[in-house]
């Protein structure tokens, strides 16, 4: 719309409200909005960029200089990270833990969710209560005890021990159950009449219809496992077994003098996840919408 | 049920073992096969450890040996332990500061990025990026920003707000404040998205009516937006409070594992880990402390939900 902006368009009569987005914004309002948006951009993204810039600055360059762009960009700091800690191993461990968590949550969560949504059985209250307990009891409350359980089954200092407690989160089960309940019953009833058993109905009819929720569950389990710190810190002893978060924290302890190297380490830990997020963002937002409101 | 002519669908009759044929039995078993893997995880790694925590809290169990019943000794010790009370106080202050900020600021942010135009999609996405990063990464980034020679102190000094660098990370009170800032910074994007879903349901007509009546944007925010997302504000308050009760990584990372000078910035989870794990771990005592955290969390949630219900009436 190129016509001149009348300062007080809002007092126009009703038909104007059919185009609310044009009528609402005065020029001053727009300027204010975009100023605030830019300010928040600096506040929320600036620290990441500052860290990125620090990680690329060479030894001869002051990291205190206000210039955000390194004058002699170098990857030396990343090399130093790799020489100080087995960072590729940590990336591998984190990938393994996060992928296993995603697969387990998808499989176990969808199976349990399907039973809760579609299969008649007695003892439902007991099952509900058990899953509710996993949501209501914070993991931090039972962490010492889970450590003892892990010790007695020999999983301390193993990646399996990192993955298992979150292998079928209450959130995954609730999301899957809700997704299955949202499917029309008719197709499954018809398949049942044709002699399809519960597994076939789950595997070939229900699962292909909830791909969106499966994606959400996988992504959330992956990101949670990748980012988790406290539990891996508790259960992993041998530095060879560390996941990235524990490894990067370890790096900051051994290298607290050199900000450039720590910055490079944090970038290694965060860039894969930011890439994942920016390529799959609608699933992230959908997950917050469903999980935040129901979880 | 008449037998003759009954069409294929045999209703499952629960609880009559004598007329149970193999098919029915399989029908009753199948759901449990579907549930079994998830149930095993839930029982072995959640329900059982919880019950175990309750039992252990009445014993003197240690990482190596111990385990005799000592009655309520751990709880008596808890009540007299200054370190526990410091941790509880710090945790509650943390909740009290962080929750109001995380209820209000993300709502303002959501209103800011609400217009359905292309550019806003960009802002929503980048505002969300701190949520995706691990708290370890975020904590280390801010450790660098808040260091005595870090960018925050430099900017404040250049603006002549302060004369010398502030000890953001080495003074225990300032350390806790810094951690709160990081918690809020990282949480903004998440709750913004939660609010965006709710804002979509606030009727446009109310806004337009208020606008026609000449209400200022601030007035419309308080009189139209806030009442429209009231339920979501309660939800965000609850979620962020439960999360803040469990605060750990911020404090641990930003103090290099020390919780500040003399551990003065300790939180409950920090203390539970310190007391209960490691070779000298006092598991019985840590279990009692864990249950204190549980009671605090559940008690708060219950009281909160009751207040919400009273408010809704």
Automatic annotation (TrEMBL), chain A:
Taxonomy, superkingdom: Bacteria
Cellular localisation: Cell membrane
TM stretches of this protein: 31-50, 95-117, 129-150, 162-184, 205-226, 261-280
Family matches, as Gene3D superfamilies: MetI-like
Bilayer topology annotation: Multi-pass membrane protein
Ranges for domain ABC transmembrane type-1: 91-279
Annotated signal peptide: none
SUPFAM superfamilies the record matches: MetI-like
UniProt KW Transmembrane keyword: yes
Family under the similarity heading: Belongs to the binding-protein-dependent transport system permease family.
Protein name according to UniProt: Carbohydrate ABC transporter permease
Species this chain originates from: Isoptericola hypogeus
């Amino acid at each position: 719309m190129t016509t001149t902006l009348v300062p007080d368009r809002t007092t126009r009569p009703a038909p104007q409200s059919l185009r609310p987005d044009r009528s609402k914004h005065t020029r001053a309002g727009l300027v204010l909005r975009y100023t605030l948006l830019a300010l928040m951009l600096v506040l929320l993204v600036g620290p990441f960029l500052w860290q990125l810039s620090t990680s690329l600055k060479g030894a001869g360059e002051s990291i205190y200089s206000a210039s955000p762009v390194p004058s002699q960009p170098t990857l030396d700091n990343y090399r130093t990270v790799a020489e100080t800690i087995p960072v590729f191993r940590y990336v591998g461990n984190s990938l393994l833990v996060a992928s296993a968590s995603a697969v387990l949550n998808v499989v176990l969560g969808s199976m349990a969710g399907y039973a809760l949504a579609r299969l008649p059985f007695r003892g439902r209250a007991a099952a509900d209560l058990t899953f509710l307990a996993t949501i209501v009891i914070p993991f931090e409350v039972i962490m010492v005890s889970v450590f003892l359980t892990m010790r007695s089954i020999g999983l301390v200092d193993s990646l399996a021990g990192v993955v298992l407690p979150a292998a079928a989160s209450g959130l995954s089960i609730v999301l899957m159950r809700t997704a299955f309940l949202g499917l029309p019953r008719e197709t499954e009833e018809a398949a049942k009449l044709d002699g399809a058993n519960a597994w076939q109905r789950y595997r070939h009819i229900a699962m292909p219809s909830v791909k969106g929720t499966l994606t959400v569950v996988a992504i959330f389990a992956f990101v949670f496992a990748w980012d988790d710190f406290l539990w891996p810190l508790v259960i992993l002893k041998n530095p060879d077994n560390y996941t990235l978060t524990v490894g990067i924290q370890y790096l900051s302890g051994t290298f607290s003098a050199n900000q450039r190297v720590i910055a490079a380490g944090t970038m290694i830990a965060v860039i894969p996840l930011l890439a994942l997020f920016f390529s799959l963002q609608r699933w992230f937002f959908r997950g917050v919408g469903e999980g935040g409101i129901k979880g | 049920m008449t037998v003759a002519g009954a069409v294929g669908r045999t209703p499952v009759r629960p609880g009559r073992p004598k007329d149970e044929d193999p098919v029915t039995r399989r029908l009753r078993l199948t759901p449990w096969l579907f549930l079994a893997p998830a149930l095993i995880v839930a029982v072995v790694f959640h329900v059982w450890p919880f019950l175990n925590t309750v039992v252990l809290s009445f014993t003197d169990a240690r990482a190596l040996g111990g385990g005799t019943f000592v009655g309520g000794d751990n709880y008596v010790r808890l009540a007299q332990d200054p370190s526990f009370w410091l941790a509880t106080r710090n945790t509650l202050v943390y909740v009290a500061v962080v929750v109001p900020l995380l209820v209000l600021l993300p709502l303002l942010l959501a209103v800011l990025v609400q217009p359905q135009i292309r550019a806003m999609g960009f802002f929503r996405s980048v505002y969300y990026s701190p949520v995706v990063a691990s708290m370890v990464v975020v904590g280390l980034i801010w450790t660098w920003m808040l260091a005595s020679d870090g960018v925050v102190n430099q900017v404040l000094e250049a603006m002549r707000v302060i004369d010398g660098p502030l000890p953001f990370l080495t003074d225990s009170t300032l350390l806790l404040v810094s951690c709160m800032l990081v918690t809020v910074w990282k949480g903004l994007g998440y709750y913004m998205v939660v609010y965006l879903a709710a804002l979509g349901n606030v009727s446009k007509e109310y806004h337009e009516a208020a606008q026609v009546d000449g209400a200022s944007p601030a007035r419309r925010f308080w009189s139209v937006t806030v009442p429209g997302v009231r339920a979501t504000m309660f939800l965000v308050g609850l979620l962020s409070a439960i999360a803040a009760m469990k605060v750990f990584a911020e404090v641990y990372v930003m103090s290099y594992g020390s919780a500040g000078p003399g551990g003065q910035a300790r939180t409950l989870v920090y203390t539970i880990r310190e007391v209960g794990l490691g070779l000298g771990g006092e598991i019985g005592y840590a279990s009692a402390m864990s249950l204190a955290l549980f009671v605090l969390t559940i008690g708060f949630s219950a009281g909160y939900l009751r207040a919400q219900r009273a408010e809704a009436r």
